[in-house]
Amino acid sequence: MSTCINYGVLDEDSMASDSATDIATQQSIKAYSDSLVVDAGYTLLSTTTISGSPTELLFTGLTDAYKIYAMEFANISANTTAIEFLAQVSIDNGSSFISSAASYSWANFKYGGTDSSSAGDTNVNLYSGGINGQTTSGMTVRMLIVNPTDSSVETQFIFTGVIRLDNSPQNMRQSFGVGKRLNAEDNDAIRVFVSSSAMTDGGGAIYLYGVS
């Protein structure tokens, strides 16, 4: 003789009931697991959806509440190909950005392509150039900004992700890199921009996290 056990189904994102008999929906399991990733050390500070074809995006108000900030570039595209994704920092909360010669160093590495670097540049280059004659048209990248507000050390950048080539969703390549501001100071804002044209309206979002 078999026994039939009837389980309840809970759609409960927090899993607060802690039931030993009921089962959870797929949606609530995903919501709960996603919350654990954030609670593990990432605090979402802002979400910026790309609209109006901006040439730049400014993120201000960085404080010593976090030693590390993380920026997630989700499906960011530009209105033209062969572009570079760039970043600069500020010491006056975004009233101006440091852009003089030899202010930053950076290096990025591409799977299947030519690596590039600079020991002294006007910006940090998140991605530069194409691969095998194909040009860059978009990216999904995570960048860590390390110790931006600590005036005793240089601000460091670490980035990794995938790059879309020739405006083709099927043509993606991995890229990663590092960079730093060549002076120790309190950086309280960051500017993200493209080398030419503008970012694509409705072409993705940038998420800013504080990392504890």
Task: Write up this protein.
- The chain is mainly beta.
- The protein folds into two domains: 30 residues, no CATH class; 170 residues.
- It is built from one helix and 14 strands.
- The strands form three sheets. It has an eight-stranded antiparallel β-sheet with strand order 3-14-5-10-11-12-7-8. Strands 4-13-6-9 form a four-stranded antiparallel β-sheet, with no helix packed on it.
Which spans of ≥5 residues are poorly predicted at pLDDT below 50?
none
Mean pLDDT: 79
Count the beta strands.
14
How many angstroms does the end-to-end distance come to?
Answer: 55 Å
Proportion in helices: under 10%
Overall body shape: globular
Compact overview of the structure:
With 212 residues, the chain is mainly β. The chain contains one helix and 14 strands; from the N terminus they run E-E-H-E-E-E-E-E-E-E-E-E-E-E-E.
Topology:
Blueprint: E1 9-10, E2 23-24, H1 26-39, E3 42-49, E4 56-60, E5 68-77, E6 85-90, E7 104-110, E8 116-121, E9 124-127, E10 136-146, E11 154-165, E12 172-184, E13 189-194, E14 205-211
Parallel strand pairs: 1-2
Antiparallel strand pairs: 3-14, 4-13, 5-10, 5-14, 6-9, 6-13, 7-8, 7-12, 10-11, 11-12
Which key features would you list for this structure?
212 residues, 2 domains, 4-stranded antiparallel sheet, 14 strands
